[in-house]
Design brief:
The complex is a heterotrimer. Helices cover 78% and strands 1% of the residues of chain A. Chain A is mostly helical. Chain A has one domain: ABC transporter involved in vitamin B12 uptake, BtuC, CATH 1.10.3470. The longest helix of chain A has 26 residues. By secondary structure, chain B is α/β, with parallel strands linked by helices. Chain B is built from 13 helices and 14 strands. In chain B, the strands form four sheets. Chain B has a five-stranded parallel beta sheet, with helices on both faces. The N terminus of chain B is likely disordered. Chain C has one domain. In chain C, a hairpin with a 2-residue loop joins strand 1 and strand 2. In chain C, helix 2 runs parallel beside helix 4. The chains are: A mainly alpha, B alpha/beta, C mainly alpha. At the A-C interface, helix 5, helix 11 and helix 13 of A face helix 4, helix 9 and helix 11 of C.
């Protein structure tokens, strides 16, 4: 039953993503959809960590930024093909995440938050400071994404790539969640001690999820570097990390579609709020507070529960 | 030509043009797009820029617009983030279909817009400082502020007059400070200057005495240059005074605003900086062609916002004026024609200086646009 | 060379005392609710901006300070009543997101109520530097340190000697048991927000003569304060102060002897290193955390 609904959900999303561009009047709207897609990919990965493994990360933008800058630097300074640069970034980020995962994931709660925050900030300081390599605060232009003789051009091309990658990421995430590993993960969130008693190697799973979510962020970052005209260190900083966590919690922790909805909602919302000009932060903050107060479990789980109650 | 007669000429041209253009076109407003860092770390730049654009567009409209057409200002706040800026520029181009873009408070946000306006063929006047914006020349991209390289050159020529050859630098580890730092290093050789100590600090650092102590203890430092804007140059200035460093302190044009003097207080006495005529408007000699323009702008800004206009406010004013003038000369909003006319801007006397653009120079200002200013008795004093 | 070292140390202590004062507020709310209040930095900013605007309006400084603290406390209580209490049954992560929303909201509000400019407050006792073996110390630094010490002593007295304080401590150890013992945990939560808002305001006011203030100054101060509180061990007032001083001194020593560009990174590396060996910070309580 669960498996069927998963495929149905993925199929419905695929259909939605396929028809969405028809409804978008011009490339500006497509651009917002692409940006929402990038955020959604990272958030689906981050949700594995926050929602299922119960481990907070306030430094995920660091991994996103590291992937992005790996691509930008290798392609512009060393002439690497973008695909190779993307893979190199993913491997580097994977190795870094693996190396720091064990000592860091021993930490609990806010101490883990602090540690991941620190790592994210250190990465962003390095990117900001090593201007000879990274272009410093004014950023770097990674150029277009090319593969063989083919060049990704324009928002609509990018839309299909990001939509495809998003579906792939969600498929991967839902598989992980429903696998034995995933069940172990959910056990972790409930009770770590309990999980260990029944023989689940909690540390190994936590490390694995940490690495997977970091690599997803890195791959998204690599592509993002080619999508934006100018990549700046703000994409790797503390605010971006906070924004990502907010998207996950807003949409609904431990819900893959929640992460997706949270990312899409909070990426598009500020575009609508521009009409309020100076009052924008007041309204954005108000909406965030209001939603979390009245839907403490996040948008998707709350609405899902509401629909279920109406049915029965 | 004074601002007034310049404006008269412009409106005369406008009348003539509307007459020949007919009623159908007259009804459609001119759309000016803007993306500014009105909030966030660069709000020091973007906030006054926003105020100025809104104020003067409203005034033009009150006077019936230009060429008989009203002006629509479509303005977005990018909060200093390059990716937000690029989304907003797409929005201005694709969705709002603006006729010209004036904006880009920082170099980062401007550079995010450059490939987009180039691809779309959209005339774009940037309000940011760095040289990379106009070097190499980009067909559709112009800018109003002086470059940080010019500021460095102005400081060095002042140092040279004083017989200084060895200097130290302390710069903010963010866009403006970093770019100023790099440009300073590039031109130091032309003036025979040697950098002997090089320190940085993070934006919003509450104290920089550690860095300044290192500079103080470096032998041979004859002068110190600080690159930064916002509150940090005031922190540097106060700490500088507290440590009793005797070498002269040079600030950049980034502090050319009364706020800086207010924050730093007595510690700012004797600080020297390159600045546009705007901050010393009333002190300019009457023979200075710029005087009438900057005095008038300063008066109008103060009347509306109860604060002295910073040079950043002036950049936005100049950008708007040049864009509108180019449209009037082009006789409409045809983008290619407007671009050509912006490039032909010559002899426009703005708050930043007299602008002579050309196919190879999309800024059109030279070092004469800068004045050396010293802070005396809590005010900027001309000290050329 | 000694004078240079001493100057780095003084600079570090100045900055560290600022972080310490900012960190204390985090500890109080954490004690009562295990929530990290991301709007703590905004309390610091509101205290400072209120004091500045009152002084500018001609209110004498001491009165302006008291009023600014009261205004900030009112904001703290409102935040607790309107946003945190209605969501009391939400998870701690959700509560954190609520406080992030609150920080955006309060920043936006400050930008409308006041402006986006930087403001200053005159030093309490002049600006004549004090000479110490060739290094200089500003009188305002002594104010920051002195206020931090007084605040610690007052907090110790409050938690150990008053009924309110004891109730708060009991709630932090075991909220359910505290409730069963007849402690009004809602009231405890409200007092904790009022108290940490007051602490934030006091900190903001004392440091403004050194740091200046603006509507968005709370972000950096909140971040550094949070780091100080975690490094010292959450929920431990003394820990927040030591944590703040360690971060401040690490930054200024790094700027002095290593590289000023990497001074913040050095501070975070030290925090990471400490957490790896002392997973509950320098003075933190052992035990399980809820997240």
């Amino acid at each position: 039953m669960k498996g069927v609904s998963r495929w149905a959900g993925l199929g419905a999303l695929a259909v939605f993503l396929a028809v969405l561009p028809q409804a978008l009047p011009n490339n500006y709207y497509v651009d917002i959809a692409v940006l929402a897609g990038f955020n959604a990919i990272i958030c689906v990965g981050l949700n594995l960590l926050i929602g299922y493994a119960g481990q907070i990360s306030l430094g995920h933008a660091g991994f996103f930024g590291l992937g992005a800058y790996c691509s930008a630097v290798l392609v512009t300074h060393h002439g690497w093909p973008p695909v190779l640069a993307l893979l190199a970034g993913a491997i580097l980020v994977g190795l870094i995440a693996f190396a720091i995962a064990r000592p860091i994931l021993k930490l609990k709660g806010h101490y883990l938050a602090m540690a991941t925050l620190g790592i994210g900030i250190i990465i962003s300081i390095v990117i900001n400071t090593e201007a000879g390599i990274t272009g410093g605060p004014d950023g770097i232009a990674a150029g277009p994404f090319t593969l063989g003789g083919f060049t990704l051009q324009g928002e609509r091309d990018w839309y299909w790539v990001v939509a495809g990658l998003l579906l792939l990421t969600i498929w991967l995430a839902t598989n992980l969640v429903d696998s034995p590993v995933g069940r172990a993960l959910r056990a972790l969130h409930g009770s770590e001690v309990g999980a260990e008693v029944v023989g689940v190697d909690t540390t190994r799973y936590k490390v694995m999820v940490f690495v997977v979510s970091a690599v997803i962020a890195s791959v998204a970052g690599s592509l993002f570097a080619h999508y934006v005209p100018q990549l700046t260190p703000t994409k790797a900083d503390f605010f971006k990390s906070i924004e990502l966590v907010t998207m996950v919690v807003f949409g609904g922790m431990a819900s893959t579609f929640g992460a997706l909805v949270g990312a899409a909602f909070l990426t598009t919302l500020p575009q609508f709020l521009t009409v309020f000009e100076d009052y924008e932060p007041i309204i954005l903050g108000g909406i965030m507070m209001g939603t979390m107060i009245f839907m403490p479990r996040g948008l998707v789980p709350t609405i899902a529960a509401f629909i279920q109650r109406r049915r029965s | 030509m004074s601002m007034k007669s310049w404006k008269n000429l412009a409106s005369a041209a406008a009348v003539a043009l509307t007459a020949s253009f007919g009623a159908a076109q007259a009804a459609e407003p001119i759309k000016i797009g803007a993306f500014l860092s009105a909030t966030g770390p660069a709000s020091f730049l973007g906030d006054p820029e926003k105020k100025v654009l809104e104020k003067y567009v409203a005034e033009y409209n009150k006077a019936g617009g230009i060429m008989g057409r009203k002006i629509d200002l479509i303005l977005y706040d990018d909060a200093g983030a390059a990716d937000k800026a690029s989304s907003f520029v797409k929005r201005l181009i694709e969705n709002d279909k603006v006729d010209v873009i004036v904006g880009g408070s920082t170099t980062g946000t401007t550079m995010a817009a450059v490939p987009l306006v180039e691809a779309a063929g959209m005339p774009f006047i940037s309000l940011a400082g760095a040289v990379v914006i106009i070097e190499p020349v980009k067909k559709w991209v112009f800018k109003t502020p002086h470059t940080d390289r010019m500021a460095a050159e102005k400081i060095f020529s002042d140092m040279k007059k004083k017989g200084i050859t060895k200097y130290a630098m302390i710069s903010e580890n963010a866009g403006f400070g970093k770019s100023g730092h790099d440009e300073t290093l590039k031109v130091q050789g032309n003036y025979g200057m040697t950098l002997v100590a090089d320190e940085t600090y993070a934006p919003k650092d509450p104290d920089v005495t550690a860095q300044l102590t290192k500079i103080k203890n470096t032998p041979g430092v004859q002068a110190v240059i600080n690159w930064g804007f916002g509150q940090s140059p005031a922190v540097v200035t106060k700490n500088y005074k507290q440590l009793g460093i005797s070498a002269p302190l040079y600030q950049s044009h980034g502090v050319a605003s009364k706020d800086y003097i207010k924050l730093a207080g007595d510690a700012a006495e004797g600080v020297r900086l390159p600045a546009a005529g705007l901050v010393v408007a009333s002190q300019l000699p009457d023979s200075d062609m710029q005087k009438a323009v900057v005095v008038k702008f300063q008066k109008e800004y103060q009347a509306d916002f109860k604060a002295e206009a910073s040079t950043f406010a002036g950049h936005a004013f100049d950008g708007l004026q040049m864009a509108l003038a180019a449209m009037q000369r082009a006789g409409g909003t045809d983008k290619a024609k407007v671009r050509d006319e912006i490039e032909k801007t010559s002899g426009y006397i703005g708050t930043g200086g007299t602008v002579h653009m050309s196919a190879t120079d999309h800024m059109g200002l030279n070092l004469s646009a800068f004045h050396m200013v010293e802070i005396k008795k809590g005010d900027f004093a001309l000290s050329n | 060379m000694l004078s240079a070292f001493l100057q780095f140390l003084i600079s570090g202590v100045t900055v560290g005392a600022i972080y310490a004062l900012c960190g204390l507020g985090f500890s109080i709310i954490y004690n009562a609710s295990h929530v990290i209040n991301f709007a703590q930095g905004e309390f610091i900013m509101i205290g400072a901006m209120s004091a500045v605007s009152l002084v500018d309006a001609g209110v004498p400084m001491p009165l302006a300070i008291v009023l600014a603290i009261l205004i900030t406390m009112a904001v703290g209580v409102l935040l607790e009543k309107l946003a945190v209490e209605p969501a009391k049954r939400a998870s701690v992560t959700t509560l954190i997101i609520i406080t992030i929303g609150a920080s955006i909201f309060l920043r936006g509000l400050a930008q409308e109520v006041w402006d986006k400019n930087f403001h200053k407050l005159e030093p309490f006792t002049g600006e004549v530097p004090i000479n110490l073996l060739g290094a200089v110390l500003m009188p305002q630094t002594l104010w920051v340190l002195g206020v931090a010490v007084i605040v610690i002593l007052l907090l110790a007295w409050f938690f150990n000697r008053t009924l309110e304080g004891k109730a708060m401590l009991a709630t932090s150890f075991n909220p359910l048991a505290a409730q069963l013992m007849g402690i009004n945990t809602k009231r405890v939560l409200m007092i904790s927000f009022a108290l940490s808002a007051a602490l934030g305001a006091i900190g903001g006011i004392v440091i403004t003569p050194i740091t200046f203030t603006a509507y968005d100054n709370g972000i950096m101060l909140g971040l550094k304060g949070f780091s100080a509180a975690v490094l010292g061990g959450l929920g431990n007032g003394m820990g927040a102060v030591v944590g703040g001083l360690v971060v401040g001194i690490a930054e200024s020593m790094a700027a002095g002897y290593l590289s000023s560009a990497y001074k913040d990174a050095v501070a975070f590396v030290i925090i990471l290193a400490v957490l790896i060996f002392l997973p509950n910070g320098l003075f933190g309580r052992k035990g399980t955390e809820r997240v």
